[in-house]
Specification:
327 residues; 39% helix; alpha/beta; TRAP_TAXI; signal; 2 domains; C4-dicarboxylate ABC transporter substrate-binding protein; globular; D-Maltodextrin-Binding Protein, domain 2; disordered N terminus
Length: 327
Amino acid sequence: MTTLKRHLTAGAAAAALLALIAPASAQDMPSSMTIATAAPGGVYAVYGEGLAKIITEEVGIPTSTRQTQGPPQNLILLNGGQTEIAMTTSGPAYESMTGESELAPGMKYEGMRALFAMYPTPFQMIALKSSGITSLEGLDGKRVGSGPRAGTGGTYWVRWLDSMGIDANLQYGSASDQSSQLADGRLDAFILAGGIPHPSFSELETTQDVTIFGMDTATRDKILEANPSAVAFTIPASTYKSVDTPLETAAMWNFVVVDETMPEELAYKITKAVLENNPKLKATHAAAKDTVAENISNDTFIPLHPGAARYYEEIGIAIPDAIKPAD
C-alpha cells in the first residue's frame, strides 16, 4: 500500500471513529428547520419571522417560516414530520391531543411537547361603523369574515356563534384579504383570533370609520364555561387608537411546540435563545412582551419537552406538575 493510500485509509477510520463517539445530540441536529405559522396578515406570520431570525442567529441552524391555515394544520404538519416547530393556540392543541381535531378526527397527537408560551390570543371583533354593528348579536344575518378556515378564529367562531343562535354568513380567508373585503364593503364585519394590536385592525381603523367591540360579560362567561382552554381577557383601552375603553373578551394562550423526537439539546438551545432574546422578538411584534419564562405557568396540559424543562430548572422557574416531563 502506498503512503498516500495509508494516510487516506487512516483518515477515513479516524472520521468514522469520531462519528461513533460524537454526542448523539450533535449527530441528530437538523441542517435546517421550518416553523409552521399561519396565513399572511396576522400576528403569527410576523412573530414567526422574528422567531426564525433568533433561532438562526443564536442556535446556528438556518430556520425559515412556512405559511399555513393556522394551528390545527400546524399540528398535523408537526405530527407528520413535515415541520420541526409549530405555533399553536391552546384550544387546537387540546383537541389534537385528545383526537378531537376537525382536520384529523380520532387521531391523538400524544408526542406534542411545549417549549415556551408566546402570548394570549384574544378573540376580536371589528365592523364598519355604517353597518351599525356593535355587538356579537348584531352579526345575525350579516356577511362576516372569520379568518382562515383552519385557523383558531375559523375553528371556534362558527361553534360559538351557533351556540348563541347567531346565524351569520361566515366567510373564510387570510386576515389581509378579509380586512380588504371589509374596507371595500364586501363584508359587514370581521371577527378573528389574534395577538394585539392586530395589524389588520390597526390598518382598518386608520383608513376606515370602524367600530371595534368586545363581548358582554354573560356571553363571555358562557364561552368560558364551555371551553376549558379559553380564559377571560381584557383588551386595554390603549391597544387601538379608536377605542378609549377596555374591551372584555375571551382568549387562548399560544405556545411554541415541537415533537417529542426533537433532541433534548436542540430543544434546550431553542428555548434558551428565544427567552434570553426577548427584546429582539419584541422589536418584531409587541405581543412578544409576554414571551417570558414565567408565562409557562399558563400551560396546563401540554407536556414540556425535557430540553425546555432543563432550561426552566436552570433559571429557577417552577414547572407545574401537570406538564412536567415523565422521568
